[in-house]
Amino acid sequence: MPTSELELSLDAELEQLEQLLGLLKKEQQLLTERKLDDLIPLLEEKTTQLRHLENRSQARRQAFAKLGISDQAGPIRSWLHTHQSNLLPKWEQLLDKARMAELLNRTNGQLISTRQEIEQQFLQQAVRPDSDELPSYSADGKISSAGSAARRRDLV
C-alpha cells in the first residue's frame, strides 16, 4: 500500500474525530445548560458521526493490515517509527483525540445518569404521601402537606 494512502486514511480518521469531539463538547454544553430539547437532533448527528468514524477506523485498520501490522497501538507506533516516522505525530494525535472523545462521551453519559437519578428521586419524593418534610402531589395534581391537615395547601 502506498504511503500516501496510509496518510490519507489517518487524515480522514483524524478529521472525523475532530467533528465528533465538536459534537461531544456541544452535547456536554447542552446537558449542563439543561437544553434537553436541543439534544435530540444533536444525538442523531452524533450517531451519524459515530458511523462515519467507524468506517474511517475500519479503513485505517485495513490499511495497516495490508502492511502486516496488527491493530494495536504499540505495533503501529513501532512500525511507523521504523518505516514512516513522518506519520508518527498523526498517529499519536489520533490516539489522543480518541481518548479525549471516549472521556467526553463517558462524562456526558454520567451527566445524563446523574440527571435521571435526581429527577427520579424528586418524583419519588413528590408523590410519596408519607413524607413530613415536603409537600406531595395527589393524583389530580394538587399539592398537600402531609404534616397536618390544618396546613393543607391544595391549589385549585
Topology:
Blueprint: H1 3-32, H2 39-66, H3 73-83, H4 88-127, E1 136-137, E2 143-144
Antiparallel strand pairs: 1-2
Question: What structural keywords apply?
Answer:
4 helices; two-stranded antiparallel sheet; 156 residues; mainly alpha; Methane Monooxygenase Hydroxylase, Chain G, domain 1; elongated; 3% strand; 70% helix
Helix content: 55-70%
Q: Which class do the helix and strand fractions yield?
A: mainly alpha
The CATH superfamily name is FlgN-like
Number of domains: 1
Q: How many β strands by DSSP?
A: 2
Q: Uncertain spans, ≥5 residues at pLDDT below 50?
A: 147-156
- Strand percentage: under 5%
Shape: elongated
Number of helices: 4
Order of secondary-structure elements = HHHHEE
What is the residue-mean pLDDT, rounded to a whole number?
84
- What Rg do the Cα atoms give? 26 Å
* CATH class membership: Mainly Alpha
The quaternary structure here is single chain
CATH overall fold name: Methane Monooxygenase Hydroxylase, Chain G, domain 1
Q: Label the CATH architecture.
A: Up-down Bundle
Specify the biggest β-sheet: 2 strands, antiparallel
Distance between the termini: 76 Å
Largest sheet strand order: 1-2
Task: Give a written overview of the molecule.
The protein is mainly α and 156 residues long. It has helices at 3-32, 39-66, 73-83, 88-127; strands spanning 136-137, 143-144. The protein has a single domain (3-119), classed as Methane Monooxygenase Hydroxylase, Chain G, domain 1 (Up-down Bundle), CATH 1.20.58.300. It is built from four helices and two strands. A hairpin with a 5-residue loop joins strand 1 and strand 2. Helix 1 packs antiparallel against helix 2 and helix 1 (3-32) packs parallel to helix 4 (88-127). The radius of gyration is 26 Å and the shape is elongated.
